[in-house]
Design brief:
Strand content of chain A: over 45%
Structural class of chain A: mainly beta
Distance between the termini of chain B: 40 Å
Low-confidence stretches of chain A: none
Distance between the termini of chain A: 37 Å
Oligomer: heterodimer
Largest interface: A-B, 24 and 24 residues
Number of strands of chain B: 11
Helix content of chain B: under 10%
Radius of gyration of chain B: 13 Å
Order of helices and strands of chain A: EEEEEEEEEEE
Order of helices and strands of chain B: EEEEEEEEEEE
Number of helices of chain A: 0
Helix content of chain A: under 10%
Number of helices of chain B: 0
Shape of chain B: globular
């Protein structure tokens, strides 16, 4: 079974620029998550999708972050404009409906550096 | 509130047992997980425990759950240098995972 695919692996941008990350979850996984992991910290949930609907985006800074999951498969996360404090690894994860004992499968992440 | 806490560092000698501890806050969490993260990599699911269990063993890994104290631990038997990584405890609450800040395990030969 193919894992969760993310691209790009690395991105360096200047503050106030925009950036987009892409995620392709495991085939058949209905639930998709975007997490932000700042260096030295645990991952923090940004947004959760169930199919193509948003379940939880309470921690998403909506003035600059947006995410969509078209057709309930791939997802993109965008930051516009970026700030220095957005430097982090952005992790995408997916799980089957119910999750539970299957856990959540994570991609390798996109490391964003804002200079 | 939602808060998962772990000690930040643990150092052991190769061949010893490692015990990584975690406390969580949501008594209604149904599943608790341990993930491993190696440098530059994503999170790898190591094991999980369902909330109605108090122990789970999987090869070198033993998970202990004390629901009364909301305490979770991961024991790694015969720790190897390849076990050096950051270990994250996570609780599943409201359909999402809440992670601790991670414990960096250093294994010395």
């Amino acid at each position: 079974e193919a894992g969760v695919a993310q691209s790009p692996r690395y991105k360096i941008i200047e503050k106030r620029q925009s950036v987009a990350f892409w995620c392709n979850p495991i085939s058949g996984h209905a639930t998709l998550y975007w997490y932000q992991q700042i260096l030295g910290q645990g991952p923090k949930l940004l947004i959760q999708f169930q199919n193509n609907g948003v379940v939880d985006d309470s921690q998403l800074p909506k003035d600059r972050f947006s995410a969509e999951r078209l057709k309930g498969v791939d997802s993109t996360l965008k930051i516009q404009p970026a700030k220095l404090e957005d430097s982090a690894v952005y992790l995408c994860a997916s799980s089957p409906t119910g999750g539970g004992r299957y856990g959540y499968t994570f991609g390798s992440g996109t490391r964003l550096t804002v200079v | 509130g939602e808060d998962v806490e772990q000690s930040l560092f643990l150092s052991v000698r190769e061949g010893d047992s490692s015990v990584i501890n975690c406390t969580y806050t949501d008594s209604s969490s149904t599943y608790l997980y341990w993930y491993k993260q190696e440098p530059g990599a994503g999170l790898q699911l190591l094991t999980y425990i369902f909330s109605n269990m108090d122990m789970k063993q999987d090869q070198r890994l033993t998970v202990l759950l004390n629901k009364k104290d909301k305490h979770l631990s991961l024991r790694i038997a015969d720790t190897q240098t390849g076990d050096s990584a950051i270990y994250f405890c996570a609780e599943r609450t409201g359909g999402k995972l809440i992670f601790g800040q991670g414990t960096e395990l250093s294994v010395k030969p």
